[in-house]
Design a protein that fits this description.
Blueprint: H1 2-52, H2 56-137
Helix pairs in contact: 1-2
């Protein structure tokens, strides 16, 4: 039984490691998307400053640029929301895996304690028998 529990614990640890890697990828993607969103907002601000200092001819293209950039920002925000849902789901899966692993670890520890207790009891019985035999011989 002890060997089986150790294998199960190791298996759960590998599942946790895999889920952590997936979680890291999701967090990395969310960070990249957030940076892209901020870059687009910064670009809009920079273009707004440029347009205010230029002629009307350039300013007429600014509206189309802003509209397409805001559309890209909205697409990025949708992707970020999807990633946040995936992040939360993955975190919940990791929590459940940790709980399951902990149950097996506790069971393993209890089993090891019981084996030690049984061994000590067996030794005590053996020592008691030796003590009784020595007492009888006197």
């Amino acid at each position: 039984m002890a060997k089986g529990l150790k294998k199960i614990i190791r298996f759960h640890q590998s599942l946790i490691d895999e889920k952590r890697k997936v979680l890291g990828d999701f967090l990395n993607q969310a960070s990249i998307c957030d940076k892209q969103r901020q870059d687009f907002k910064d670009n809009i601000k920079a273009e707004q400053d440029n347009v205010s200092n230029t002629t009307n001819m350039i300013a007429m293209f600014y509206g189309g640029y802003v509209a397409s950039t805001y559309q890209k920002i909205k697409e990025i925000e949708v992707k970020i929301e999807e990633l946040e849902v995936s992040i939360k789901n993955t975190q919940q899966e990791i929590i459940l895996l940790f709980k399951e692993k902990k149950v097996f670890e506790i069971t393993q520890n209890n089993h090891e304690k019981q084996v030690i207790k049984d061994k000590l009891n067996l030794e005590q019985v053996f020592l008691d028998e030796i003590g009784q035999e020595i007492h009888r011989r006197r």
